[in-house]
Amino acid sequence: MLVISRKIGESFLIGDDIEATVVDITGEKVIVGITAPRMLRISRGEVAQITAENAQAAAGNINMNSFARMYKKRFPKGQA
Fold first, then answer.
1. What is the 3-state secondary structure (H, E, C) of 17-80?
2. Which domain holds residue 61?
3. Has residue 15 been placed in a domain?
4. Is 62:72 a contact under the CB 8 Å cutoff?
5. Please, which residues have CB within 8 angstroms of residue 44's CB and are 6 or more apart in sequence?
6. Higher confidence at residue 68 or residue 9?
7. Domains in the chain, number
8. 27 and 49 assigned to the same domain
9. Model confidence pTM above 0.70
10. DSSP structural state of residue 11
11. What pLDDT does residue 79 have?
12. Whether 20 and 34 share a structural domain
């Protein structure tokens, strides 16, 4: 992993045609603007994880008994 320090308004390049610019920093939150070709798909990491989990569920690769136990622990009777 490459770690880069940037200030607000500074940017860095990824390859020849992707530029990431630090737009704002508030506390521990950094807002980054990305300039890239429209044909390039950019998504957040958690979206990719959810997409993979949804694909697994749609393929039937989910253990419903484990899911039921987890659900009952998280939502005891009468709280769901």
1. CEEEEEEEEECCEEEEEEECCCCCCCCCHHHHHHHHHHHHHHCCCCCHHHHHHHHHHHCCCCCC
2. 43-75
3. yes
4. no
5. none
6. 9
7. 2
8. no
9. no
10. E
11. 59
12. yes
